[in-house]
Design brief:
This protein has helices spanning about 5-15, 30-45, 60-65, 110-120, 140-150, 165-180, 210-215, 230-240, 240-245, 250-255, 260-265, 270-275, 340-345, 360-365, 380-390, and strands at about 15-25, 50-55, 75, 80, 85, 90-95, 130-135, 155-160, 185-195, 200-205, 220-230, 290-295, 300, 310-315, 320-325, 325-330, 350, 370. With about 425 residues, the protein is an alpha/beta fold.
């Protein structure tokens, strides 16, 4: 686990995840894991596909807070299956790999970085809207490793309590983010006052508002005050996330409101690519949306364009840089020039395929469709992700016809 990280493999896994968000704090005991768990569960309840990664190597608490601490995970030689909670939440933690909950993890930095890199490269997260990463307190090996291994992370949510002793350390955490060019999505002030479970009265046991003042001083967004409420602690101990069982309470509503900055996120890795598009009335560049078409055979990008079993259409919302789930459609009969016209009618702006000849490219050009050829026979969503982040590696001729000759002919791949 202490070997060199496989960055290429990590990039491939992460390319399927739209938004990677770290939950950080410079101070321990501020309720960071509580915030991470409830945010992840709230996002999943909102219909988002969510992963929750617990990288607190020495004190993993996510399995306990979700009631899955005794579960075992499965995997193969080169992949690990995260534990699935319901339909939309996938979870991974070092806690799943310990023989018992009392076992201590006594590792130095290289070992910790090794297991974190494996969580990112080997865990089969699949396609996700969000990956929420619960980090241990401080600015040490674990959060540093995550930020270095995921350079396109969307940002961090910082958790603090209102007391000065916590704020001193949390300010350092914000400095940490700035030095690593990690956006601060906002600050949450946890344990801000006490809500009586009987009468609902709010009492300030500690001070209140320190997190808000700090956020204003450091010019970062402030997301809200979360009071001390006994049911929050009880929910964590019982493995029943608070937002699921008490959504109508004031604290439940506060947790729900914290989703706003996450739901408003733009996919950072798309911004440079999409902003590079000019204005073109025929090819879709400059429109608010862009549609990418991919021919598919047996679950991978087709090498024979005209013989594809189906096409997947990926919609990209240019206003917020989000990618919608693909729509599958069956192409029309194989006749010369039919598919280019069909794709134009379906609104395709870009075609990513294996092989395509010069004649076919001319046909697509006439219909205002940009063509990317030589795509590898891999999962379509992954290929689209590589194209959008600029890492797609193409061959000069991926079609099975020698020298691409059949692809540009009337009866070949591209003419259909």
């Amino acid at each position: 686990m202490s070997g060199k990280p496989d960055q290429e493999k990590i990039n491939k896994r992460m390319s399927l995840i739209k938004h990677k968000v770290l939950v950080l704090s410079g101070k321990g005991g501020v309720g960071k894991s509580t915030v991470a768990v409830n945010l992840a569960v709230a996002l999943a309840s909102a219909g988002k596909k969510v992963g929750l990664l617990d990288v607190d190597i020495h004190g993993p608490s996510v399995p306990k807070m979700l009631g899955i601490e005794n579960m075992k995970i499965e995997g193969t030689e080169d992949s690990i299956k995260p534990f699935e909670v319901g339909d939309n939440l996938r979870v991974m933690s070092i806690g799943f790999l310990l023989r018992n909950s009392d076992e201590a993890v006594i590792w130095r930095g290289p070992m910790k970085m090794g297991v974190i890199s494996q969580f990112l490269s080997d865990v089969d997260w699949g396609e996700l809207d969000y990956l929420v990463i619960d980090s241990p307190p401080g600015t040490g090996d674990e959060p540093l490793s995550v930020v270095q291994l995921i350079p396109d992370a969307a940002g961090a949510i910082i958790v603090t309590t209102p007391q000065s002793v916590a704020l001193i350390d949390v300010r350092k955490c914000i400095t940490f983010c700035r030095q690593l060019n990690l956006p601060v999505l906002g600050v949450i002030e946890n344990m801000s006052g006490f809500v009586c479970p009987h009468c609902g009265k709010h009492t300030e046991i500690f001070s209140s508002g320190g997190g808000k003042l700090m956020a204003e001083d450091l010019d970062v967004p402030f997301l809200g005050l979360v009071p001390i409420e006994p049911r929050v602690a009880q929910a964590g101990d019982s493995g029943q996330p608070f937002v699921l069982n008490h959504p109508g309470t004031e604290t439940g509503k506060l947790f729900a409101n914290l989703l706003a900055p996450l739901l408003a996120l733009k996919k950072r890795e798309l911004e440079t690519e999409l902003s590079a598009f000019g204005n073109c009335d025929t090819c879709g560049k400059g429109k608010e949306t862009m549609k990418i078409a991919v021919p598919v055979d047996s679950g991978v990008v087709s090498a024979h364009f005209g013989h594809a079993q189906k096409f997947l259409f990926f919609d990209i919302d240019r206003s917020n840089n989000s990618i919608a789930s693909p729509v599958e459609k069956t192409p029309p009969p194989h006749e010369e020039g039919v598919i280019p016209e069909w794709l134009r009618k379906e609104g395709a702006d870009i075609l990513i395929t294996g092989g395509l000849g010069a004649k076919a490219k001319q046909l697509f050009g006439q219909f205002g469709i940009e063509v990317v050829t030589g795509a590898p026979p891999e999962e379509p969503a992954r290929v689209v992700g590589f194209y959008l982040d600029g890492s797609l590696k193409t061959d000069s001729n991926a079609c099975g016809h020698p020298d691409g000759g059949g692809c540009g002919s009337a009866g070949g791949c591209g003419g259909h």
